[in-house]
Design brief:
Helix 17 runs parallel beside helix 19 (about 405-415). The radius of gyration is 42 Å and the shape is elongated. About 65% of the residues lie in helices and about 0% in strands. It has five domains: about 15-90, Arc Repressor Mutant, subunit A (Orthogonal Bundle), CATH 1.10.10; about 110-180; about 190-265; about 270-350; about 365-485, no CATH class. Strand 1 (about 75-80) and strand 2 form a beta hairpin. The chain is mainly alpha-helical and about 500 residues long. The chain has a two-stranded antiparallel ribbon.
């Protein structure tokens, strides 16, 4: 059970006779125009034609047709007030409808027309049926011979049991498309027959037999050929190597395929072939990416495709994308997100060719080896990352400190509880004092240690030399120094 209620708010009263006897038989768009116009009439608002079109999402011609329709039903009266067109809404039709169905009985002025309709449809038509069909001529403006041609076509396509409601929808479409002569009607029928034949060929290709194309299939086919510009041949070409038998909605599945081709500008057989070849190459490229990232499964997913398209937009060829993948895997990661960041960093750093990137990576590897030497000497046991390479290049290439001086700082730091942070303190202090060579570092350490031995209240470094054989005494002196230097940054 469904229950409806109404809370206090601004309301628009709708005539009951409209709801019971007219609304359900009227075209949906016409009902929208009536209800919206009735609302404006109650609020006293005025809208220009453009605003009405935007509000109702209908063209000016459709709105005018709808108002003329309701004028024939007696619910609207039009009049002119200067340059303004005024539509007066009636609370009920001016002429009360007769008959049980509440509609005005048709005036059989055209017996031949009525007899032809009954013969074509092979049944007796009710008063309501005739009233609806008379709308095709009186409201939609279709000539009688066009209506007869349309009914003949609909009976041929749908059978003699075709409903008047279906005929009404076709009549609306024909009126909106300007089919107002017998010649245009015959051409429309020929076009529809050709389309139905083409749609039937597609159905056979999909394994659908035993019936003609329905409205849904024809709507799809019309969209593909008339709106998107595919030919029968290009549609069939797009269907090659596609399995439709297992699809519950094969036309919807084909629609998705054709939409993708249409959005990529591939509607001819040649363009479809080029697009498919490019797509096949992209899939192979993505499989190579998965291999470079050391994935065992190489099944390409839409997510992989999106990432690859983003990488390609950065401006690098496939070979450099693979290089970024291998470098990412070498650094211990297989995340697709990491690759885009690396490619963007290379682009920002000005690396345009594969050779320049190889040279850059070679320099990074060389620096990594040097950092590993320093860290091993200091007793720092962690994987070398970008921050560690940056620290090394900052002092060696930025401040001119030699590798031997870095190694000497590492040896001093090796006895500290936190060698990594202590190494940074030593390097910072030396850089501030202009230390660049091993001799500078040893002299700096000796001077500070000597000052400390003289009783000066200063922190000092103990003296170390690589060639000194008396390591134990040097380490004891260094230990004392380190205990004092632990608070160097405090």
């Amino acid at each position: 059970m469904i229950k409806f209620s109404l809370k206090e708010q601004a309301t628009t009263p709708v005539p009951t006779i409209f709801l019971k006897n007219y609304m359900c038989d009227a075209p949906p768009d016409y009902v929208r125009v009536y209800l919206y116009g009735l609302c404006l009439a109650h609020t006293g608002e005025s809208l220009d034609g453009v605003a009405m079109e935007e509000r109702l999402h209908l063209s000016s011609a459709q709105i005018t047709s709808a108002l003329e329709y309701w004028e024939t039903k007696g619910f609207v009266k039009s009049r002119s007030a200067g340059k303004t067109k005024v539509y007066d809404f009636m609370t009920e039709p001016e002429e009360q409808p007769a008959g049980d169905d509440g509609r005005k009985a048709p005036v059989y002025e055209y017996k031949n027309f009525n007899n032809m309709l009954a013969t074509l449809l092979d049944r007796n038509l009710s008063t309501a049926d005739f009233n609806k069909i008379y709308d095709f001529t009186d409201v939609f403006g279709l000539p009688q011979d066009v209506v007869i041609t349309m009914v003949e076509y609909c009976v041929a396509a749908k059978g003699k049991n075709v409903s008047v409601a279906y005929l009404d929808k076709v009549a609306q479409t024909w009126a909106e498309d300007g089919i107002d002569t017998r010649e245009k009607a015959q051409q429309r029928v020929e076009d529809h027959r050709a389309a139905a034949s083409g749609a039937k060929v597609l159905m056979r290709t999909m394994g659908i037999t035993g019936r003609s194309p329905g409205k849904r299939e024809m709507d799809y086919y019309d969209k593909w050929t008339e709106k998107w510009g595919f030919t029968q041949e290009s549609i069939q070409y797009a269907m090659r190597d596609v399995e439709f038998s297992a699809k519950s909605e094969p036309f919807a599945y084909l629609d998705a395929i054709l939409r993708n081709l249409y959005e990529n500008g591939a509607v001819s057989s040649r363009k479809i072939n080029e697009f498919n070849n490019a797509y096949a190459r992209k899939k192979e490229n993505i499989k190579e990416v998965l291999g470079a990232l050391e994935y065992t499964r190489k099944e390409v997913t839409p997510r992989h495709e999106r990432f690859y398209e983003e990488w390609a937009e950065i401006g690098y060829p496939h070979s450099i994308i693979l290089l970024a993948c291998r470098q990412t895997a070498k650094n211990g990661s297989r995340r697709f997100e990491s690759i885009g960041g690396l490619l963007k960093k290379w682009k920002e750093d000005g690396f345009e060719t594969e050779q320049s990137i190889h040279e850059h990576l070679k320099r990074q590897d060389d620096i990594k080896l040097l950092v590993e030497q320093v860290y091993e000497c200091a007793g720092i046991g962690r994987q070398i990352g970008d921050a560690d390479r940056k620290l090394y290049t900052e002092y060696v290439y930025g401040k001119g400190m030699s590798h031997d001086a870095m190694m000497y700082a590492a040896e001093i730091s090796s006895i500290a509880n936190e060698p990594s942070s202590f190494l940074r303190k030593v390097l910072s202090d030396w850089a501030a004092r202009g230390v660049k060579t091993l001799d500078d570092a040893m002299k700096q350490n000796m001077d500070r240690f000597s000052s400390d031995m003289k009783g000066k209240n200063k922190k000092a470094f103990s003296q170390h030399t690589y060639s000194n054989t008396d390591r134990e005494s040097q380490k004891k002196a260094a230990m004392k120094e380190i205990e004092e230097m632990e608070g160097l940054d405090d």
